[in-house]
Amino acid sequence: MMDRRLTPANGRVAAAHLQGQVEAQNFTEGSAAAVRVAVADLLKAPGGARDRQLGYGAAVTVFERHEGWAFVQAQADGFVGYVAEEALGQATAPTHRVATRATHAYAEANLKTPDRVFLTLGARLCVTGAQGSFLETEAGFVPAGHLLPLDRPDVDPVAVSERLLGTPYLWGGNSAMGIDCSGLVQAGLHACGIACPGDSDLQARALGETLASGTQPKRGDLFFWKGHVAWVADEHTLLHANAFHMAVAYEPIAGALARIEGQGEGPVTRHARLTGV
């Protein structure tokens, strides 16, 4: 059975490559677009529950626009869902990404001018010029020190995730305004140029090499539970977005394992190690 989160088909329309595999009234190659708001919710159904979020500049393929909603597939991880049509704009060729927890795009190259849009970690922009300590983008002027070229990935995904310490927990969140466990892992890996699915169950199937029970954890490892994932910050400490702290927080590994199992959420289902991390 196809995973609806990764299958661009809704009965009315489907991606052309699915012809013969799913039923739909129309099949299409779709059209390119990009998110043009700070953060757009990616919903399971129009007006429905949030599955994930897409930050400014996120590239999507639009398969349908219907009654104010766009049925899309995110380029970064293949996640499918609905976003408000007004959140989308013209696709561009991004050159840089936000490498800090967050920043703003200003109307002019002056921090005292109005801010046009909030930009969260990982947001993508096309830099067209420089003025003083600012870079000019389609969103406005952004402090140069907050951006990095796309061809300069980070090297430590845990360090990237640590930039989001204290961020409020938000189910399905993918931004500095709110994030969940899988969003935190994805943010770290995407900043390092490493492909990563959107949800923890998909990550558990796709990421790293499974280690034997009892293996000494090291920084960059991942612990998975049913419905949860956490970074190993060091041999004694986890870093994760979790509902217990309602934030991105450090937690002693031993205490976290006992707490999570004690809450009835079960033991660790997988200890994984990423190659090259």
UniProtKB/TrEMBL annotation:
Keyword Protease set for record: yes
Signal peptide: none
GO biological process terms, semicolon-separated: proteolysis
Annotated keywords: Hydrolase, Protease, Thiol protease
Domain (NlpC/P60) ranges: 150-275
A GO molecular-function annotation: cysteine-type peptidase activity
Family of the protein in this entry: Belongs to the peptidase C40 family.
PANTHER family (alphabetical): NLP_P60 DOMAIN-CONTAINING PROTEIN-RELATED, PEPTIDOGLYCAN DL-ENDOPEPTIDASE CWLO
Name of the protein in question: NlpC/P60 family protein
Source organism (scientific name): Alloyangia sp. H15
